[in-house]
Amino acid sequence: MTAKKSLNFFQIMTMNFGFFGVQFSFGLQQSNLSAIYKYLGANESELPMLWLAGPVTGLVVQPIIGAISDNTWSPTFGRRKPFFLIGAVIASIALILMPYSNSLWMAASLLWILDAANNIALEPYRAFISDKLPEKQYSLGFLMQSFFTGLGTTMANFTPVILVSFGVLALSDKMENGIPLTTLWAFLIGAIASTLTILITVFTTSEYPPTDEEIKKINKSKKVGILSNTIKEIVDAFKEMPFTMKQLFPVMFFPWYAMFCYWQYLTSALSLSLFGTLDQSSIFFNKAQLLTGNINGTYNIICFSIAFLLLPFAKKFGPKKLHFFSLFIGGIGLISLPLLSDKSILFSIPINGGIMISKIYLISLALGITWASMMSMPYQILANSIPSNKTGIYMGIFNMFIVVPMIIQIFSMQFFVYDLLSKNPISVIQLAGTFLILGGIFSLFIKTSDESQL
C-alpha cells in the first residue's frame, strides 16, 4: 500500500476547493427554494413535500456513487474526480434553468435533478479526504471542508443582497413568474461557481493509484457487473457496519431533522415574528426572504471563520464533547427566535458611517458554531472507524443518516407535526432548536475503540 504523504495547507485547500462550488449550489437551495415555491403558488403546508427531492436523491444516489467510485479507476481521470465533474456540470444546468420555472412541478422537477447532481459530486468528496490524507490530517481535511461549506453558502446567501446594495438590481424587480431578478442572477453566478471550482480541483490534485488488491477488486466488479456488484457491496457493508458508525445515527438524526425544519420555515417564521404577516405578495415577505439570506450567509461566515479555530478544541476535548457544545449553542439560538428583533442593535461595525447589527443575528452566531461542527466532527469520528478500502461506500451509507431524518421530517411535518404546532412556523423553528440539543446529548454517549475519541 502506498504511504500517504502529509500535504501542506495550500494543497489541502486546493483539493477541497471544488467543495466551495457544491456548497454554493446547496446554499442557493436552502435560502431560496421555499420562497420560489411560494412565488409559484405553494401553500405553507405544502413546503415540506416539495423539498422531498433532496433527501430521496441523497438516499438513493450517495451509497450507489460511493460503491461505484470505490471500484473506479482511470489513469487519466482518477477515482473520485470524474464524479466531481459530472455532478458539477449537471448541477450548473439545473441552476440556470431553475429561476425560469413557470410552475410548481417544473421547479420541483429541476430540484430533483439539481440534488441528484450535487449528491454525485458531494459523496466522493467525503471519501477524497481519507483517500489523500494520512489519519493525522483528517481533522484539518474535514475542517477545510467546513470552511468551504461556510464560504460557499455565505456567497450564495449574500449574492442577492450584494446585487441590491450596489444598485445592480432593485428589490422589486421581478420576472414574469414572480421570482425576483436577484434570485435569477444568484443562480446564474452559482452555476459558474459550481463548475469552475470543481475544475480547479480536478486539474490541480492527483489521486493515489489503487493497490494490486484494489485492482483485482475493480476488475472483479467489472466481470460481475457494476449494478449487481454495487448492490452486493451495499448489502455487505450494512451487515458489517462498525459499531461506532451505528451509534452516530441519533447524533445525525435530530440535528438534520432540525436543519430541514430551519431551511423550510425560516423565511415564514421571520416574516411572522418580525412583520406579523405570511402574505408572500407583501414587501414584508420579500424583506424576510432577504433577511433569511443575510442570516444564513452570516452563520456561514461564522462557520468558515471559526472552522480552523475548532481544531485545537477537537484535539483537547475530543470531537464528541466539542460536537455537544456546538449543537447546544445552536439549539439555544433557534429556541430564542421570538425574543430576537431586527430593530434592537447588538453592535455597530464602523464602516460607511456604521453598519448596525441587530439581535436577530445572534441566530447566525449560534448556528455558525453548530454548522462548523456538523460538517466535520461526525465525519472525523466515522473516518477513524471504517475500513480504508470501503471509504466511499460507507461515506455514502453515512449520508443515509442525513437523508432519512429529512424524509421523516417531510412526511411528519406535512401530515401532523405542523398541525400539532398550531400551523405556526415560529414553533417549527423552536422544535428545530430542541432537536439540535438532543443530537448533542446523544453525541456524548458514543463509544469508540480509540481512547482519543472519548
Attribute tags:
single chain; 454 residues; mainly alpha; Growth Hormone, Chain: A; two-stranded antiparallel ribbon
The CATH first-level class comes to Mainly Alpha
Total E-strand runs:
2
Share of residues in strands: under 5%
Using the CA coordinates, give the radius of gyration. Answer: 21 Å
CATH architecture: Up-down Bundle
**Strand count, sense and closure of the main sheet?**
2 strands, antiparallel
The low-confidence runs, each spanning 5 or more residues with pLDDT under 50, are none
Strand order of the largest sheet: 1-2
Q: Please bin the fraction of helical residues.
A: over 70%
Whole-number average pLDDT?
Answer: 85
**Tally of domains:** 1
What's the CATH H-level superfamily name?
MFS general substrate transporter like domains
| Structural class label | mainly alpha
Q: Count of helices?
A: 19
Task: Describe the fold and architecture.
- β1 (345-349) and β2 (355-358) form a beta hairpin.
- The mean pLDDT is 85.
- The chain has a single domain (10-453), classed as Growth Hormone, Chain: A (Up-down Bundle).
- The protein contains 19 helices and 2 strands.
- By secondary structure, the chain is mostly helical.
- α2 (17-39) runs antiparallel to α6.
- The longest helix has 33 residues, at 243-275.
- The chain has a two-stranded antiparallel sheet with strand order 1-2.
